[in-house]
Write a structure and sequence with these properties.
Elements: H1 2-30, E1 38-42, E2 45-52, E3 57-64, E4 75-81, E5 87-97, E6 100-106, E7 113-123, E8 126-136
Antiparallel strand pairs: 1-2, 2-3, 3-6, 4-5, 4-7, 5-6, 7-8
């Protein structure tokens, strides 16, 4: 009886450990942690581009350049030139993830090379363009 109890406990422990490991991996995959960004300021608005190639995600964080207050109401569109010289147009959707509000969308980043981003932002009756490059090795 003692041997059977030990065997059952070991089996349950193994299943629990495997389940905890798989749940940990799944939780890690759900996190959206963009890379360090590149920032530019135009017409009093600071735009920070953060790219997460492993998730095929592009985030544009908009803030008031003077106060640092996040801009949450804007219409953001992007024209992207891919490394093969083809072009893609995307509308970025505003969303808060964690403590950061950003405008984001997906982008196939399977090609190595330089991605050129041209963002068109309309916020508070201002039309602003931001240009960024991202090099993917």
């Amino acid at each position: 009886m003692g041997r059977m109890l030990k065997s059952t406990l070991m089996t349950l422990f193994t299943f629990f450990a495997v389940f905890a490991f798989i749940a940990g991996i799944s939780w890690g995959e759900m996190k959206h942690v963009p890379s360090d960004g590149v920032s530019k300021i135009e017409k009093g608005i600071k735009a920070t581009l953060k790219v997460t190639p492993s998730k095929n995600m592009v985030d544009l964080i908009l803030e008031d350049a003077k106060t640092g207050k996040p801009i949450t109401k804007a219409d953001v569109n992007a024209k992207i030139q891919l490394p093969d010289d083809s072009h893609v147009e995307k509308k970025l959707i505003g969303m808060k993830m964690g403590d950061i509000f950003s405008f984001m969308n997906t982008l196939d980043m399977s090609r190595k090379g330089t991605y050129y981003f041209e963002f068109f932002v309309r916020s508070a009756d201002k039309d602003i363009k931001f240009y960024f490059e991202h090099h993917l090795k």
